[in-house]
Amino acid sequence: MFQFNYKVNIIINSSMFSSQPKHLNTYILKIINLIKKVKRPFNYYEIKEELGINLAHNPGLIQSLKKNPRIEVKDNTLIYKPLYQIKNKEEFVDLLKESQVGILLSDLIDSNDKVEEWIKELGENVLSLKDADGSIAVFYNDLILDKAPKEVLNLYYKISVPNYTDMINELTSAGLKIHKAELTKKKPIPKSANKKNRRRIKITNTHIKGIDFQEEEK
């Protein structure tokens, strides 16, 4: 009997035994959270170092990332694309004015880190409403009326209301008739006397038929 000894060389790729989850959506979510936080282009090598995800050996994942509207894949780098492009407070205000249904605060913060600071500076010009699910929508408050000029306010406060007698004399001298409003009191409705209920008596004895028991009760 012949015995053969085989020497097998096995090359083990560490990525084959990675503890990463296998679902593409989980990979994409991790990558988005990373590049959104750093707010700068991230290359494939940096992503591998930070997350252990080797994009260079996963073309399927790269294709999925290219289809995601929040990610731009260019020259082996990934860039986060916020929903809105807001560079300064003026653009922030213009964006709110254009929206008729409000904008989620989370989407605004993704676009610019200074959004919450701008909201505080704008004060009552911005409204923040919390939804049932905890999300906050931001609106531009266009219901604020312009204040009257100081000169007009001074004229308003200088005018005093005349007393009743002087006002009557002024109206009379101007030929205006004065009518007194008379209040008519409603007469109380008398309560009707309670009528006695007429009881029906069942007669079982034939010898007392013909006697009116109702008359006896009066």
From TrEMBL:
PANTHER family: TRANSCRIPTION INITIATION FACTOR IIE SUBUNIT BETA, TRANSCRIPTION INITIATION FACTOR IIE, BETA SUBUNIT. One of its GO terms (cellular component) is transcription factor TFIIE complex. Keywords: DNA-binding, Nucleus, Transcription, Transcription regulation. Its main location: nucleus. The lineage of its organism: Eukaryota, Fungi, Fungi incertae sedis, Microsporidia, Tubulinosematoidea. One of its GO terms (biological process) is transcription initiation at RNA polymerase II promoter. It comes from Anncaliia algerae PRA339. It is found in: Nucleus. The keyword Transcription applies. One of its GO terms (molecular function) is TFIIH-class transcription factor complex binding. The keyword Metal-binding does not apply. This is TFIIE beta domain-containing protein. Recruits TFIIH to the initiation complex and stimulates the RNA polymerase II C-terminal domain kinase and DNA-dependent ATPase activities of TFIIH. Both TFIIH and TFIIE are required for promoter clearance by RNA polymerase. Residues 12-87 form the TFIIE beta domain.
